[in-house]
Amino acid sequence: MINSLFMINESGDTFMEKHWKAVLNKSICDYFYEAQKKCANPEDIPPIIRTPHHYLINIYRNHLYFVAVITQEIPPLFVIEFLHRMMDLFEDYFGTCTETSIKDNYVVVYELLDEMLDSGLPLATETNILKELIKPPNLLRKVTNLVTGDSTNYDNTFANKKLSHIPWRPLGVTYRNNEAFFDIIEEVDAIIDQHGAIVMSEIQGYIDCCIKLTGMPDLTISFVNPRLLDDVSFHPCVRLKKWESEHVLSFVPPDGRFRLISYRVATQKFLFIENNMGKRGRKPMKIDSDTQLEKSRESARQCRRRKKLRYEYLEELVADREKAIAKLHEELQRLRSICQHIDQQGVTSDIHQELKQWMEDPEVINQAQ
Description:
One of its GO terms (cellular component) is Golgi apparatus. Keywords: Coiled coil, Cytoplasmic vesicle, Golgi apparatus, Membrane, Protein transport, Transport. It is found in: Cytoplasmic vesicle membrane; Golgi apparatus. It is a peripheral membrane protein. By secondary structure, the chain is an alpha+beta fold. The protein folds into 3 domains: about 1-125, Beta-Lactamase (2-Layer Sandwich); about 180-275, Immunoglobulin-like; about 295-369. Helices cover about 40% and strands about 25% of the residues. It is built from 10 helices and 13 strands. The strands form 4 sheets. It has a 5-stranded antiparallel β-sheet with strand order 2-1-5-4-3, with helices on both faces. The chain has a 4-stranded antiparallel β-sheet with strand order 8-9-13-11, with no helix packed on it. The protein has a two-stranded antiparallel sheet with strand order 6-7. A hairpin with a 5-residue loop joins strand 8 and strand 9. The radius of gyration is 28 Å and the shape is extended.
């Protein structure tokens, strides 16, 4: 599908390229540069540029251009979606997807591209599966690779591991405190006339999740009136048949942060009542107030219990963080002593063996990450 990929900065320099089939010359990007000169803003560049023998499909994000070269007609949104997933993966691995971060981790970038595409066809795009195969870069791994001379980030034990049958969630996920957070974010676009009546309104909403649950949890979310939602877009974890039949969200969530659903609520008819108040006339009004004291007391008790549990959880969380920081400080002191020993006596067999054991220690690796 994708023959080549070129990464171009705002100055027009190609700082990285990847070829899955025949190696193409950089001159193929001249068609992209011509389209770039005709546009005042980077967002105005046509996403699809046709050449005599190729199609250039590009996206602009984080002040970078990603140009994919294809040789046959395919759905353009397929390629655009892959390019955005690739950038999301880089941000997950490196924190930010910039020219500097890509250059500093070019080995990991090439390894990820080799695993994501097979002969130009998408093979694996889920972050959790790729992290099982290619470990994200961290300080400990960089120091170890520098000392041992190993430049690869592949997990040597991956061949002996049992893979998850769910591509977006790895096996063996464990948490001491199981938590699930859901953020419902909605943006309202409305047009109001001079009299204050709403002419048009629309809601764009999405649900962002942060899941920290042990094992393979199966979650279900229901809405009061799900038929109001239009143009719904789901994460691949959502069971589509369940939504179509019962209008509930049933899914096995990925580990960590992800966007579960995005939707739109179309314009609905509003009943506008104009309020006119004058000095003349008299209209009696009666307001009755009723308070259910027993329910208020029970609500107060529940609130106090929730606050107490929250305080206990925060105290436990702070204690765990302090222990983790102390442990990490000890490991850093140990690393400094090893580096001083290497500067004075070189890499001895004892130091090499100690580094190897340290690199394979899962507790140290988790703390470094």
